[in-house]
Write a structure and sequence with these properties.
homodimer, mainly alpha, Arc Repressor Mutant, subunit A, two-stranded antiparallel ribbon, globular, DNA-binding
Chain lengths: ~140, ~140
DNA sequence: CCATTTTGTTATCAAATGATAAGTAATGGA
DNA sequence: TCCATTACTTATCATTTGATAACAAAATGG
């Protein structure tokens, strides 16, 4: 197996993934939410509990900028902060009820488009896809550099 | 096969892909090239010949903004424009020698990091990865919505 | 030949994002 | 107790990106 060849396939693949995710999410237009703010909400939703520092690390933005965007989201009542009882410097960020609601709506609409995308897939296809995702996750995308 | 389940896996997967591509490309720091400009150069490199309109469509940016960024890249001698002999409104954009050079360097550095990523993969693993990429490409990421 | 459409450009403004300095409060270790 | 570190905030500025209007040149189609 030629690694160079695999690299080229990998590049084309990631480009396609970016393209498709863009198409799946582009019609998600929560009123006046910027892309970065959406990313933050998404990250909070899929994680259980997160601190500003974790958001900052995972979304590759500075802590001051993270803090700024979090405050905007807090002002709009999409998130709330709870300080850790043990280490009071730490703040756990989570979605409010409003935040949960808009994110569920967003995910529902993305899911709709995803289902459209795979509407012609047979049960066998779905198994193949599931398996392929597992393989890639395990052998490429969930390793640390 | 539960489609809801598959959707959740899909969401986690795409997030991981974005994460990894970010890590692979973050150390590619061509001097004073903005992310959008890099995207444009990348798109020109992987495509054979492109017009501003195609770039605009594929990278989801307006034609005026595309034109602006192309001009900046042209000023810096990374790209050049050739007008179509048949339809003189059309301009084909391609990399200059300088542009080719910086993009090759960029891709080499990304490839290095990619090879690091899969350094512990056996030959069997590589085959599996190759196959998984094919499956996903065919059954999910290269369909039109 | 004339109206319309396509392709691209320039200019301008607003908004989003990034970078950095400075500060607070809590923690932890010498 | 004191100092360094960690977690986070506020403020400010520069840059990047997005949106829109107005224009020009070439093509297309009656």
């Amino acid at each position: 197996m030629d690694k160079k060849e695999l690299f080229n396939q990998f590049v084309a693949f990631t480009a396609a993934v970016h393209q498709v995710t863009h198409e799946l999410t582009q019609n998600v237009k929560i009123d006046n939410i910027t892309p970065v703010q959406y990313k933050i909400l998404e990250y909070i939703k899929v994680s259980q509990s997160v601190t500003p520092t974790e958001i900052s690390d995972c979304l590759h933005m500075s802590l001051p900028n993270t803090s700024r965007e979090l405050r905007k989201l807090q002002d709009r009542k999409f998130i709330k902060k709870i300080s850790d009882t043990e280490d009071r410097r730490k703040h756990y960020v989570c979605l409010t009820e409003d935040g949960e609601k808009i994110m569920e709506e967003a995910f529902d609409s993305i899911e709709d488009r995803f289902l459209q995308l795979i509407q012609h897939a047979s049960n066998n296809d779905l198994e193949d896809i599931h398996h392929a995702l597992n393989i890639l996750d395990e052998k490429v995308f969930n390793l640390k550099l």
